[in-house]
Amino acid sequence: MGEKYASTLGLRGILQPKSKLSPFLQLGLGIEDGTYKDNKLLGGLVYAHMIKADKTRRGVGMQNFQWGKASIGDYDRLLHIIYIESPKAYRQIAKYLPARSERSFQIMEVGQLKALTYDGPVALSWDDTKLLPAWRFYWDTQQQTHFLVGAVNGPIRVADPEAARAIMTDTSYILGSKVRLFCLQIPLAGVAPIMVAGIPITEKLDVLQLEPLSSQVLHGLLDRDVHVVSCSCDGTETERSVQHTLVENAESQHVFKVPSPLEGHVYELTIRIPIIHNHPVVMVQDSLHARKTFRNNLFSGARLLALGNHAAFYRHIRQIAFEQGSPLYHRDVEKLDRQDDNAAARLFSAETLRFIIQRHPTYLGDIVFLFVFGELPDAYQNRRISHGERIKIALRAHYFVCMWQAYLHKAGYAESRYFISREAADITSYLIEGVLGLVVVHRDQYARQKPFPLLIWHHGTDPCEHGFGCFRSIIVDFTLLDFYYMIQKTRVRMHEAVLLAESSADPKARAIGYNHTYMDRTGANMQELARYPTDKDIAGIARIAFEEAESLVALLGVVPDQLHNDDATSMTLPGFDYLLSDGFHADELGWDLEEEFASETDEELDHAETLQRLLKEDHWENLSNEMDNEALNYALAATSLTIDDMVTIANLADTEDNIEEDIREKERTSIREQAEAARKLPQVDADESERPFGRGSLTTADLDLSFLVEEREKHQTRQAEQGIRTRPAQHLDATLKAQDDEA
Questions:
Q1: Which of 172, 416, 460, 544 is most buried, most CB within 10 Å of its CB?
Q2: Of 697, 399, 398, 392, whose CA–CA distance to 533 is shortest?
């Protein structure tokens, strides 16, 4: 009878009408017979409630509750979203409904690394992007109430429309105009970044308000045994100040010194690596942002970059861009998108350097500037070169900048007018110290027991920018609530991009803004990337880098020996009147370097924000019928677009458990393969100092400018190589030969 009762559809309903059953029992029976088969969220809530009631009846707590069960997956994900939006709101919900402890969610988030069977170093990055400041209602199905989402204060419970209206007009509630995203990246190929936090902020926050946010995330990860090895951000003044404060507040510092190639301590380089919660953490600036900063310094008319007897000019680069066979596009120098990664890569490419050397060999200021500041970002971005070569590039830049500053000091030229900007100089220091810091920490901390490769290009803000790009590909003007929803919805997109190992744009494209290349692993040799130079090696590399920097300075018409002491030795110096010919003035362009990363997307958001503000204002009175109707149409159109954005997000497919597990398995395989490749590294018993790095030293006597091109060809990225306008070398040789024949 019992079997009949259970298996015969409808028999139970005849013998026990639902009107006599409790609502919970009715729901449970409906879930069992398929009536509510599509409502997994409600089913998960009931299941969790039943287990909690059973545990309460037996006098035990919620410990060992199996939250991973598929039957409560949707309900658990909803709780996770609420926890992400506001831990405070989550605590209120947990008083009345079965819910994980906050510690459980923290363990689950950290568990994303454990799910990949990975316990090595990770890179932490953070960046901001603009939000459309707007209130959005969020209906909480558990509490049966609405929350207003959008303020930096967190979600706010509202009881009725009047209460919501009062909150919206209350100036004590400040809408978030930006969201600060924190991402973790396992610095190995084929692994997608993990978004760990998204915090609404305003435009006006300073370092005293922003630094605690970074500290909270960083300390929380370190305390949960997540081995954060680097903190990366873009080059703004505020972000660098946040990094500086993190270093100053560290419990201790590990000091690493590169000895001066000369007697004394004139060129000694000291690297201070903060030890935070017993972990060494290297502060890094994003190398792609740095490349654009160097480009913008060259293009700015606010300074004259005085390099010995020569100078670097924007007008030279503009002239080159319009010449036949140029590797640059016109858009690379006019109406420039200052966030265009491709344009910056083309400017500092080997082909551009070759073109200038062959066409304009007297433009030595431009040649040396493009060489030195093109090489430094590629110490991070190149996939093929050894870590010794990266260190040589960084130290060469360090010594060159020191000599440049010494030259300006002895010549009596103010750095504020004739040197790169203070921001660019600070970023340069971060890049130089970042290369050495990451190599030393990986060598001494993570590769001591077994070989572990350093893929240094993963230490940057690309994961954050990639996330923002995914979000804006769905909705350009997204709100805070949109952002939280899209974090879960775009996970598969980012995994796909990383697993395909493709850059996000055609390297030849123009004015496209960011081109995310951190997924590209072409040419990476895990065995070479797991080989680290010793301190003795680094001292030898420093001598080579110093000699090459001296040769570059000599090329500019300055005697290097005159720069290596602090006395006021007189120097024969050029004047700059001849440099300012053709009506050129130092302030010709007046580029504001503090705003160099303003984007077209920001402008679009400004328009959307302005429209939203205008439609909310109450002064639209005494308008003609025609104007009143037009204003109404704009309001309706704006509302329609808002609804369309919400529908777009709602229609995005959720990540199925089997798809997520498939992605994780691919990532586990990728991590395992790279670890195995690194372990194949043969033991090296030879004296490491005898191993050659690079091409050796340069001297003034045998310096050949073609060597600079060869170095750039060896060190530039694949994107720079493929992104040039033409293959000018062949056409250029033919053109020059024709000109010689005519002469």
A1: 460
A2: 392
Q: Assess whether pLDDT exceeds 50 at residue 1.
A: no
Helices 491-500 and 462-474 pack at an angle, to 10 degrees, of: 120
Q: Which residues contact 560 (CB under 8 A, 6 or more apart)?
A: 403, 550, 553, 554
- Length of the chain in terms of residues written: 743
Asked whether the predicted pLDDT for residue 553 surpasses 70, the reply is: yes
Structure confidence at residue 717 (pLDDT): 75
H or E element in which residue 408 lies: helix 387-411
Task: Copy the structure tokens of residue 185.
Answer: 């990246």
SS3 of 463, please?
helix
Look at residue 28 in the predicted model and tell me its pLDDT. Answer: 57
| Cβ-contact 693, 541 below 8 angstroms | yes
Tokens representing 482?
């949109």
For the four alpha carbons of 93, 97, 100 and 101, in that order, the dihedral sign comes to positive
Q: How many CA atoms within 13 Å lie on the side-chain side of 289?
A: 30
- Residue 144's pLDDT band, with cuts at 50, 70 and 90, is confident
pLDDT per position as a tens digit, 288-311: 999 999 999 999 878 899 999 999
- For CA atoms 46, 51, 52, 54, the dihedral sign is positive
User: What number of other Cβ atoms are within 10 A of residue 237's Cβ?
Assistant: 12
Close Cβ partners of 711 (under 8 Å, ≥ 6 residues apart): 371, 375, 694, 695
**Chain CA centroid to CA 502, Å:** 17
Rounded CA separation 741/743 (Å)? 5
Nearest 10 degrees: CA dihedral of 481, 484, 488, 492?
90
Judge contact between 462 and 518, C-beta under 8 A: yes
Q: Which residues contact 720 (CB under 8 A, 6 or more apart)?
A: 345, 346, 348, 349, 350, 378, 507
User: Is 140:93 a contact under the CB 8 Å cutoff?
Assistant: yes
pLDDT in tens, 470-512: 888 888 788 888 888 888 777 767 776 776 655 444 545 544 4
Average pLDDT over residues 84-100: 62
Three-class secondary structure assignment of 553-567: HHHCCCCHHHHCCCC
Contact 231, 284 (CB under 8 A): yes
Phi, psi of 258 (to 5 degrees): -100, 115
Q: Residue 579 corresponds to which tokens in the numbers above?
A: 């440099």
473 neighbors 504 (Cβ within 8 angstroms): no
DSSP 635-663: HHHHHHHHHHHHHHHHHSPPPPHHHHHHH
Could you report the per-residue pLDDT of 15-51, keeping only the tens digit for each? 445 455 555 555 555 655 655 555 555 555 666 666 6
Token readout for 406 is: 């010494």
Q: Which residue has the higher pLDDT, 483 or 730?
A: 483
The reported pLDDT for the residue numbered 85 is 46
As a whole number, mean pLDDT of residues 638-659 equals 54
Poorest-confidence range of 76-90, 109-123, 420-434, 702-716? 76-90
3-state secondary structure of 698: coil
Distance CA 562, CA 580 (A): 26
Q: How far is CA 604 from CA 130, 142, 476, 504, in A?
A: 10, 37, 8, 21
Decide: helix, strand or coil at residue 306: strand
**What is the C-alpha to C-alpha distance for residues 285 and 280, in angstroms, rounded to an integer?**
17
Closest by CA to 488, choosing from 73, 69, 42, 77, is 77
Structure tokens at 202: 């305003």
CB 467 within 8 A of CB 136: no
Phi, psi of 650 (to 5 degrees): -65, -30
The model's pTM is: 0.71
**pLDDT score of 419 more than 60:** yes
Q: What is the distance in angstroms between the CA of the first residue and the CA of the last residue of the chain?
A: 110
- What mean pLDDT do residues 274-299 have? 94
